[in-house]
Fold each of these.
Amino acid sequence: MAERITVATDGTLQVPDEPILPYIEGDGTGVDIWPASQTVFDAAVAKHGRRIVWKEVLAGEKAFNETGDWLPEETVEAFREHIIGIKGPLTTPVGGGIRSLNVALRQILDLYVCLRPVRWFTGVPSPVRHPEKVDMVIFRENTEDVYAGLEVQAGTEEASRLAAFLRDDLGWTIKPNSGIGIKPVSESGSKRLIRAALEYALRHGRRSVTLVHKGNIQKFTEGAFRAWGYELVRDEFSDVAVGWDDCGGNPGDKLLVKDAIADITLQQVLTRPEDFDVIATTNLNGDYLSDALAAQVGGIGIAPGGNINYVTGHGVFEATHGTAPKYAGQDKVNPGSVILSGVLMFEHLGWTDVAADIVKALEATIAEHIVTYDFARLTEGATEVKTSEFAAAIVERL
Ligand code: NAP
């Protein structure tokens, strides 16, 4: 019987065998990658005697064309009520009232973690020599930092009033032709993100959590993020985790928590990826780092993401690439990002058997060099297949 997922008082998800899951097909290539992904999900779930009752909700162009609204309230309500959902890519309306539909959904549902696991699958073309050494999970803060949208345009009345306040009250001199942005990073926001990363690392038997920050320059935002992280380890996790300075880099059997400055991190994830495991970082650093890392293991066609609030249980899993409009409707692009976002979703639901099966079948397909155009152009002797054929090949190997 179709039922809703609920959340118990202790915050754990109660997942029925036939949950109702809302989904957004997505704009552009969403019409290709969503149906392909859905066939993989349905086949994998059926194998374990379960069923998903899909509930389509609208957002983006499809919503705008049908309702005049880019993000109808009904859609937000569906994600709120059903706790967990999944989406394809959405067009960001240019010059519209909403800066980004993705950012709007994250902020409305307070999905404070952007979860981006980055690992390599055998056979995936990569620009680095040892992509198999990349196995990291990024926890990117999703609600604060420069993404809070607090900025004023150069030359406006607001900008000159803000500049006057900063000059008169704080003695800061700002050039008159400047746009000004505000970067809020809170103790509670930082700690809940880092707490989620630590709990994930402990749950999954990971070796370390690295706090990535730019605290050498931005002391009271990025530097504070680092300090609050170590404080959290001492206050709440001292029996199971230890900060680098408190153990001289020798954590014994505890989880090691260390930190690294963002710029050197971007270099070291390339030169010694094996030193990084779980990463907890502020919003903008996380944005750069996620895409840079995705490039090492095959690019955005195959990089999954999840936006999660571990307290309320809400989660929206999503393709990390955009709508790639030039390929829309051609049954051409790689559905890997949505498929692996589904894997993340199933892991989050506790359906680890389903998740593992999909990963195995996807790996087997790619290992046989049956791939979409993006991998085919980088792989000698590959068999290039359409989006739907790639999904069918995965289903065959389930
Ligand atoms: P994009 O849609 O991500 O496409 C950029 C390039 O990435 C494509 O030209 C293609 O590369 C490659 N690519 C994208 N999806 C792929 C897939 N499934 N398989 C294989 N390769 C794929 O970025 P964009 O053109 O900058 O943005 C287009 C629209 O998407 C904009 O409206 C933007 O706001 C929106 N967007 C949405 C999201 C989201 O919903 N999460 C994220 C980012 C952007 P090649 O040209 O090399 O083949």
Note: The pocket of NAP is lined by residues 29, 33, 89-92, 102, 300-301, 318, 321-325, 333-334, 337, 374 (CB under 6 Å).
Amino acid sequence: MKIHEYQAKSVLARFGVPVPRGEVAFSADDVGDIARRLGGSVVVVKAQIHAGGRGKGGGVKLAKSPDEAQQIAKQMIGMTLVTHQTGPEGRKVGRVLVEEGLQIDRELYLSIVIDRATACPVVIASAAGGMDIEEVAESHPEKILREAIDSGTGIVPFQARKLAFGMGLGAGPAQKLVTVLTAIYKAFIETDASMIEINPLILTKGGDLLALDAKVAFDDNAMY
Ligand code: ADP
Ligand code: MG
């Protein structure tokens, strides 16, 4: 079972993963007020569909004012969004996530999946976040880092630091990655997720790490 980005972010936030401030809207009429509540000079309007590649497909747009955000939402809600992950038929957009616009310094990739061969969780990380990870794996396989997790002990800080330094993070952000990855792992285990993918995990100009996008899928066998 898949859930929307805004739902995935609220699950992650419950476990202490930092996410941008934002609210979902089912109608464009609510978007102006949401943008005003968020404040700041830029908000981002993001189509909520069960597929990625929205940025390139026109499903993630920056707005410089609450009015502009509302205009964008008006066009987005009800549209059929086609991305390289939806297939040619696309997906109808029923709601949008309106989020604070953040100043991005770096975009990283981080995910946890179950390795079928060992039946253990594995963390996949890359300094080349923001783009299609399949493409990175194809053209620059050396940029994909993997760390197998012992499900008995869980993630140990050493593993998070190893990934952080592998992605070229300095000491400060590396320490933050230990906290963030531990929280994501806890969410993965406690929600019986089959996959949590954060692409991108961003480092802001202010030095914070946040999950800017989130994809969570649950193991259907674990639904209760
Ligand atoms: P998708 O993976 O479906 O393309 P993302 O949520 O990853 O959608 O967004 C695509 C890109 O849009 C991100 O890589 C980032 O550069 C930009 N972006 C998304 N949300 C924000 C935000 N809140 N602030 C600033 N930029 C954003
Ligand atoms: Mg993304």
Note: The pocket of magnesium ion (ligand 2) is lined by residues 52, 199, 213 (CB under 6 Å).
Amino acid sequence: MTASTPTGTRVQFRAVTKQYPGHRALDGVDLDIAPGEFVALLGPSGCGKTTALRSLAGLEQITDGEILLDGSDVAATPVNRRDMGMVFQSYSLFPHMTVLENVEFGLRMRKVGAASRRTRAEEALEMVGLGVHGKRFAHQLSGGQQQRVALARALVTRPKVLLLDEPLSALDAKVRVQLRDEIRRIQLELGITTLFVTHDQEEALAVADRVAVMKAGRIEQIGAPEDLYQRPSSAFVADFVGVSNRLPGTVSGGEIDVHGVLLPLLAPARPDGAAVALVRPEDVRFAAAGVAATVLTTSFLGALRRTRVALADGTELAVQHGTEVAPAEGAVVHLAFTGAPVALAD
Ligand code: ADP
Ligand code: MG
């Protein structure tokens, strides 16, 4: 299948607000998605992810602000003319139609001729690895296969933008990873602008060019996965993109004093004073000397081990380390820190 829009479509949200009776689901969302870019909207349940997606699709009317496709305001463009391909968490295939008929459906609605319809549907199924299953019905497919069909059905009309709302949430872990990687492969192959909604940080970091972390109807931070992980702008983002330890300390001259250990700051411009250092579990080590701590629990996680310890003042920390070390619960250990932490006010 060839890409319909080889250059992709630009999507812009400008100060978009969506007010439901008694609840503001979107509260001034600004988002600029480059042609062919894959952006993940990441955030807890209820933060407005689905509302943002549905507003772009034209399924919700926004209260304020504007949404542009390639620079044109879409306010007056109805759902069926916005050219969006959508995949939802529920597989939502028509049960009385075969796989091929499901995929052809959008083309039938667009009055594409039978022969062309068939060819394009077969190509789309081929692309998602289901070329041989065209004659089956939805109930004869696994969940992962049904989502592949849903993906083929969304792409067969050659939409301007692909919208995915938690498409992997109902699948088991292994299938989830396979399909996620495949969505990314297909997206890159087609060069299609994609907005992917998820509450799973690993999923977002793994597939997206940029991740927008949402909180209460706003985008709290947007950036490349590495940026978000290494330079979260708030404790909320840090929590959301991975486990972080919070260590109270004092900033002075671009360093932070944490329990008597001086750590250089990732952003040394921070003003002096009390702060919280975010230290990732992989940046804490057991050492011969350093901050004393008591082992609370330790868990074997296959490739690594995670151990929780408590400092003298009660602060708890997670330490991620190799499986060759298995600290005894109750043992006194010493901790050293590697890497430069992010310091936050809260
Ligand atoms: P998410 O997809 O991030 O879980 P949603 O966009 O579905 O969040 O919802 C955002 C907020 O808007 C939620 O608090 C939800 O209860 C509220 N909401 C969604 N749809 C409606 C509606 N039709 N009427 C009133 N409130 C709604
Ligand atoms: Mg949702």
Note: Residues 20, 23, 25, 43, 45-51 surround adenosine-5'-diphosphate (ligand 1) (CB under 6 Å).
Amino acid sequence: MSAAKDDPNPKPSHFLRAVIERDLEAGVYAGRHFAGTPGDAAHHAAGPLDPARIRTRFPPEPNGYLHIGHAKSICLNFGLARDYGGVCHLRFDDTNPEKEEQEYVDAILDAVKWLGFDWESNGTSHLYYASDYFDFMHRAAVALIEAGLAYVDEQSAEQMRAARGDFITPGSDSPYRSRTPAENRARFAAMRAGELADGAAVLRARIDMASPNINLRDPALYRIKRATHHNTGDAWCIYPMYTFAHPIEDALENITHSICTLEFEDQRPFYDWLLDHLCELGLLAQPRPHQYEFARLNVTYIVTSKRKLRQLVDEGIVGGWDDPRLPTIAGLRRRGYTPASIRLLAERTGASKAGGWTDCASLDIALRDDLEGQAVRAMAVIEPLKLELVNWAEVFGDAASVACAAPAHPQRPELGQRNFGLGPLLWIERGDFAEVPPKGFFRLFPGNRVRLKYGAIVECIGCSKDAAGNVSAVQARVLPDTRSGTPGADAIKVKGTITWVAAHDALPAELRLYDRLFTEEQPDAGGKDFKAALNPQSVRVAQGFIEPSLAAAAAETHVQLERHGYFVTDRIDHRCERPVFNRIAGLKDKRS
Ligand code: ATP
Ligand code: MG
């Protein structure tokens, strides 16, 4: 059954919902036209009324694998569009020529789909590449030049930095600031034609060198960079700056609500300046998009910086981008977190202006909330110890085994039954036996009785040891007439129940037991060396046994192993003939 099918959907309200509801109420975007594809004012004016009530977008730079913070942004943008009768665009922000790779583009497409979202709506694909807008961006730059709103600055980078001022000192004007539009047009054409060296000139907006907001002190719009772009090849040797490109991308696509993280708050005045002017100049359709900022998702014990994740991968500290200990979407998936659990976390963490840390336990809580009602149950033994039922023949005669059954799910009879056998030789957890029981120990120790879950009651009579003195097997007697599900089985009361599998039908399996990758709550806080906080015990691989009901489990099957937690069959390494299970999370949070 698909984990993505149903969201429990609590949908707490937050300021972004309030903004959207206010805009819808006021009909702010009701009269917009949309031509079906991105374009300028004339393009959209020729199209019909926009069928989407709002448009949002998720704009990743394809320079790495997406992580849980991106998942949050995906859920927010696609989720809001879905909830309000809108459309969310998936846009690759590939305006920087140096860093993009197809591998990342493919991984991002995969991640968005896996999370349960789609950029296709009513038969139209809203998958866009920002580099397709280079021609328009160039045209917009020329229009700004002609309106006296941009100039080519040929100061050195050093001079420009010095003239920018700082928080207390206003900036000072560049000597090139008073160039005429005609001069600027010629110099910008020279930049474009490759007549100037990389870094020899930049195109800047002409706003206010004394603005208290440093982002408004004539920000750069275009730089010279001889680099081959994956989409446009060598067509350009000038590339737009992110702060210039991004608002234009939003406007060309008819985005209504452009949602980003708080570090862009200081850029909003420039976002508004740029789009207002390009609308006035008739280049972009109105009403134009607006930017709204929310606090990024930070999760304890997790590092999300792409640079640091890359370091973990490149240095072989983890097994790859999809290592089950990484917070990449690929890693979360392989670990076994379900799309619904990630959507639930995103929903529960809402959207706010105040940053903060989300307890990493929240992810496990969301996972349990998703899987509790749907994951099938099974027994497994992770640290096997032999249990010999010494009186088997007295109780069961010459039967090699007797049949046992258990519900696949305790609350879902429609999921049917699991069948397995009880035999004279079983595997139990090493931790379920104690030669000398500690206080309050109700499981196996000499003289004590326990129930083998779904099996029968046994009474421990002793154990055997190997040459080193370690317990190698436990002996017990099975009590007659105590088989689960038979009349009178409950006549004898015991305090402990243990899980087990039978040696004759259990399947050997590898169980990968994961723990936090870091031992500190904020491994990279304050520029700390995050690698110093690596948990040396972040994974342990156990060779155990699983119940035969899991014999045909496909890859990515979620299961609750009774008493042990939620597990998933590894999507890469699992084979029916060589099962591999990853532990996703325990049944409850043991640490809090
Ligand atoms: P990082 O620096 O963490 O690797 P990024 O911001 O450089 O991420 P982009 O590809 O530019 O990565 O981000 C795409 C979108 O995801 C942006 O809108 C960005 O704001 C959002 N995003 C990135 N990290 C988070 C986060 N931790 N919480 C919420 N949104 C995030
Ligand atoms: Mg970024």
Note: The two ends are 31 Å apart (CA to CA).
